[in-house]
Amino acid sequence: MNGYTLTKVFEINKTLVVADSIEEAIRVYKLRSPEADIRQIHEISGSDYASGCFAILEKSAVHSVRSWELTHITFTGVDEWTNIDELVDIQRRYPKVEFGVLVSRKWQENNDRYMSPEQVKELQGHGLRLSAHFCGSLAREVFNMGGFSEIHGAYDGMFDRVQLNVASCTDVAPTCIMPGPLKEVIIQQGSNLSLFEQCHIASGDHVSVLLDKSGGQGIDTPIEVPLYAQKVHVGFAGGIGPDNVIDKLKQITSSPNIGKFWIDMESSVRTYDTFDVCKVDEVCKKVYEEFLNK
Fold first, then answer.
1. Nearest alpha carbon to residue 252 among 230, 267, 273, 269
2. How far apart are CA 24 and CA 22, in angstroms?
3. I want to staple 158 with a disulfide (CB 3.0 to 4.6 A). Which of 37, 53, 124, 200 is the partner?
């Protein structure tokens, strides 16, 4: 069941909850009924009633499995050689997919993962789920001085989410992180989360975090789920790809801390540093068939 080992059944206020501990059972119950007072709770796994509980779980019980939600499967680094029709086909078959576009003021001097502003605009109008990933001086400038509205307008509002790759700014407090018309601003962070924490305290729930010690280099890094992941939209990156995506998802969702989250891939879905739609399709097929629909 998506990586969970369901070993105990608790009855809380006459509601069945499946969890590994009483603490997790209370947390799951509170997610479903945040205003309810817990008047009665007891474990029933050891009784004769346990077998009957498991038989009716799908209809009447609250699962700890359902406390998380995979919101996006993000593939970053769409480039000038990417076939838009192939992206449209993937988006149609796998609606959770999001395509990340790397944006930099010095796109001409960077590698082939960056498109020109004109090429980026060609992605518009195809029904694609798109996010912009600001890099370098552009990310630092927007982070410290604002300017979301101007950039959002320059791209005709084609992005729902913008990620600021500002892991190197861990000691810089934001002066203007308000997103204007954007739905969500993502702060990329490595091991030091102080920058994101400042942003979230100052600006609220529209600020989320991508935990990425790899920095888009495809280095496999351990999955660590912070406590605040129950309440904050959290992304995971770092060596996730076709060969290990299911294992990574199981590690993430086995944590009692996890709520809404997404995964992000970049280097692992490239071949000769070109965005590889075949690898993207392979990841999506595995996630949907071996994880989401299992």
1. 230
2. 5
3. 124
Cα–Cα distance for residue pair 109/17, rounded to 1 Å = 55
Is residue 57 within a helix (H) or strand (E), and if so which, with residue range?
helix 57-60
pLDDT in tens, 175-204: 445 555 567 888 888 655 666 766 666 566
Nearest-angstrom CA–CA distance, 134 and 164? 5
Return the closest-CA partner of residue 263 out of 137, 117, 76, 87: 76
CA distance 12 to 129: 40
Largest distance between two CA atoms of the chain: 69
pLDDT in tens, 199-222: 666 566 778 889 987 766 778 888
- Which residue segments constitute the domains of the chain, with CATH numbers given? 8-66 (no CATH), 68-292 (3.20.20.70)
